[in-house]
Amino acid sequence: MLDIEAIATAQSEIPVLEFQQVCLEYALNQQRLAIIEEVTFSIERAEFISIVGPSGCGKTSLLRMISGLHPATQGTVRFRGQPIVKPLKNVGIAFQKPVLLPWRNTLQNVLLPLEVVPPYKRKFRENLPRYTQAAQELLATVGLSDFKTHYPWQLSGGMQQRASLCRALIHQPEILLLDEPFGALDAFTREEMWVMMQALWQKTQCTAVLVTHDLREAIFLSDKVYVMGPRPSRIIYELQVDLPRPRTLETCLTDEFNHLFAEVRRHIRRG
Ligand SMILES: Nc1ncnc2c1ncn2[C@@H]1O[C@H](COP(=O)(O)OP(=O)(O)OP(=O)(O)O)[C@@H](O)[C@H]1O
Questions:
Q1: Where in the numbering of this chain does the ABC transporter domain appear (predicted)?
Q2: For ligand 1, is residue 57 a contact (CB within 6 Å)?
Q3: Is the residue at 47 inside a domain?
Q4: Which of 25, 26, 227 gets mutated to test ligand 1 (max ligand atoms within 8 A of its CB)?
Q5: Contact of 241 with 258, CB cutoff 8 Å
């Protein structure tokens, strides 16, 4: 094998994200509050993983460490083999609240990161036709082609969240962080969003990390589900989800799906 091929192969084998004996504490009223203890796991390129666990166990904090917004107190979080020491650039984030700008229409909201984030903003005007096409493709994937010129207040909650997911992906981030993005939606809309999320992930081939309280959502979307225990928390269980893709809502009715659900549920109870 040529050296260059060997290097490329070695690089492709490095996990995109690695947590190595990571501990996290917060300072609160001059006391140290231990949140996460000795978490070690890794995420491969283009994997979709979920983190579930009791409220307050540190799931969002874990996303913050990946994004580089908060450092680990001990241990190392790595992105492609390098310790994360500052905010990562190639990350897309979606939260429970879609937070679209009310004075911009759907398309303009989706394009926003390209307008403000380097290096895209430098050539925004020049590349606008290409960016617009990319935004339109994402919007088509989530069924919003007919709502490009609508303003946020003209969209349902589910539609706003779909637009927010497109915005998180418009700069083709390598990593997508999802912090309970469907938590505020009704049960039917939420299930539709799972199907759309799967389509977006398959289209973009990003590495996705989802924090959710919904175990069915975690199983539906993920290759692996990590269960965190109560604070100070560790990963207490890892579930491999080998259900074939693309999954449909009928997948949730199968014995195999229900077996996986029971398995995660049992470990959360134990935690
Ligand atoms: N900046 C901070 N300073 C001090 N304590 C914090 C800070 N951020 C979070 N915490 C505390 O850390 C703990 C974990 O918070 P985090 O939001 O990561 O948990 P979570 O598992 O995502 O919770 P939930 O499921 O309820 O959203 C909580 O007790 C929270 O109060």
A1: 17-255
A2: yes
A3: yes
A4: 26
A5: no
CA angle 233, 268, 66 (to 5 degrees): 45
Alpha-carbon Rg for the chain in angstroms? 19
CATH number for 258? 3.40.50.300
Identify which of 113, 98, 264 has the alpha carbon closest to the alpha carbon of residue 179.
Answer: 98
Query: Per the domain annotation, does 64 fall within a domain?
Result: yes
Residue 118 domain boundaries: 91-172
Q: How many CA atoms lie within 13 A of 253 on its CB side?
A: 3
| CA pair distance 52, 154, nearest whole angstrom | 33
Residues 45 and 30 in one domain: yes
Q: Is the CB of 35 under 6 A from ligand 1?
A: yes
Give the ipTM.
0.96
Is the beta carbon of 161 within 6 A of some atom in ligand 1?
A: no
Asked if residue 130 belongs to a domain, the reply is: yes
The per-residue pLDDT for range 72-89, each reduced to its tens digit, is 999 999 999 999 999 998
pLDDT in tens, 101-142: 999 999 999 999 999 988 888 999 999 999 999 999 999 999
| Ligand 1 pocket mutation pick from 31, 59, 62, 66 by most atoms within 8 angstroms of CB | 59
Report how many domains make up the chain. 2
